[in-house]
Amino acid sequence: MEGSGIDGGDLAIGQGQFPISYSKNMERSPFINSTLRFFQKLNGPSTICVIMAVFVGILYLNSLGNEFTNWDDMMIYSNDQIRSLSWENICRIFIYTKGFTYQPVRVLSYAVDYHFWGLNPVGYHITNIVFYILTCIMVFLSLQLLSRHLREGMTENSHFRVAFFGSLLFAAHPVHVEAVTWLSARKEVLQGFFFFLGFYLYLKWREENSEKKTFCLALVLISFILAVLSKPSAIIFPGIIILYEIARMRVGFINFLKSHWLFFLISLAISAMFTFLLVKIMVDAGGIKKYYGNSFLSNYLVSLYAFLRYIKLLTFTGNYSAAYSFSVNLPIFQIKNVAFMLVNLAMIVLSIFSLRRTKIIFFSFFFFVITLLPYLNIIPISTLLADRYVFIASFAYLFLLGVLLDRFYVIRQRMFAEGVFKMVSIALFVFLLAGYSLITIQQNRIWEDSFTLWSNAVENYPESNTANSLMGVVYMDSGMDQEALKYLEKAVQILPSDYISRNNLGIVYGRLGQPEKGLNELLIAIQLRPRDDAIRINLAILYMWNGEHSKAEEILKDLLLRNPKNVDLYFRLGLLYREMGRYDDAVAKLIKAMELAPHSINPYEELGNIYVSRFKDLRKARYYYAKGIEAVPQARSRIEGLRWMIQDLEAYR
Description:
Layout: H1 6-9, H2 30-40, H3 45-59, H4 73-77, H5 87-93, H6 104-117, H7 121-150, H8 156-172, H9 177-181, H10 186-208, H11 215-230, H12 237-249, H13 253-259, H14 261-285, H15 296-315, H16 335-354, H17 359-372, H18 394-409, H19 420-446, H20 450-460, H21 465-477, H22 481-494, H23 499-511, H24 515-528, H25 533-545, H26 549-562, H27 567-580, H28 583-596, H29 601-613, H30 618-631, H31 636-650
């Protein structure tokens, strides 16, 4: 036995303990022996990397056929920033633009995907899966070091088992499907990889404990910055480092902090800078909402409910969804709410006191709390609950699960054969792994396209504003306005301040020949979101449909004064002038739109149409149709239409 421990050094036998003897009839069976030998041969980083890559690849193989969803439109499908990998465009990606999120690493990764794949979603899915594999590998490495640092006296075999159990369960957990399969959630797997890379490098530096290894701290800071640039919620990283140090050194933490003050000062400064930027982005984008229930206490109750629901998502929930809804019982001080508050308080108190006996519970609980802080609606945000928000926090739960499975693995009792508890531990692990994997594969199918995604969400959570709103968009895009109306009206009924659904309702009412209702919804949307140019553009379009051309022109020209490089404004003005019979003005605006967005097919097509139908200039019409084909070669159906137009024009030459 290695290190005088049980099973090759799993648990050291100290003074006052005695070894357990086994009779011949309690020896392990050949099946148990062969199973355990196979399990013990897995130890090795390269083996784990291969296992993880193959396992995750199989789990998410059925997601490769999934299409873009309507949640991907703004970030990928219609995002001009990802259309080029030129140095000028890369610099533009890293410059903050008011009113938009700031996640430049995510946008840059889409630009790389677009360079190789165009708008083929398969390539984007492959990239997501690759970064998820890398994240899972970093989770394994981090768990192994964390177990070694917080579980003194245990053997390397024990630390390996904790990491192996925990990382594979992390890889299979269905709560991660949204982060991996939803293409616009690329930020989660990017942040996860850089976050756990930074954490692993820090743990490695602490293990080496050598001044020659201090360059690791620079790599930790770089990883931290890349995590924040992938998703700003990584600002909590310094809190995790401090938590780890408290758990590891309970008494000597202050002295350690003093001796490494520069690293912690730089980390906190980076966190503070990006926290300020995050708050600014949320304020500019209208992402910060009023207190739920219009009071701090009621908002705290919502945060508490969300916290408990996240625990449920990790432990008991099989009914995962892209959108959730839950209600909070009011008044605040009633039995159920008080009970929840007491449960929450008890968890905090017990976790603090657990530090005296075990570091595992203390670290895991507060890791979970700290990584969820940006999402608990302490500062109210738009989304109350989402699978992706628990992506990094799930590390704590699966660390605990790995430790519990390992504890069970090393149990020995006189009345049982030597390998029984080992086999039971492995059986429990396999049962959980198989269950998680089956749910994950099933969830991948739900993300197949927008219709399957939102019909599932509406079915499971019919009172979800998000589910109804985006189901309405699915029907809008399909031209099924009557069906869209039903879901959009429900979305507004659930959340009257939903300016996006009111904007969409305005469009639907207009298309259904109810301009008064449409104008009313758009005007309410503008009151709720005064700075949203897209709503004003839609208002102008509705005025144009209603024959009120002067009102539409006034709105578009006013917007253009404030946004002189907005392509959509030039394009809409071009269409308006065409409707008004001002064809020279229409051509001028459409050419400007073409110059600002050379890879958009719409201006070329409209210019060709005007030269054919109004100016009878077939040469210029052919020129613009051909330029449209050249500009957007991947838009197959649109290109086919332009080719037919050119062919028809050739007949008149």
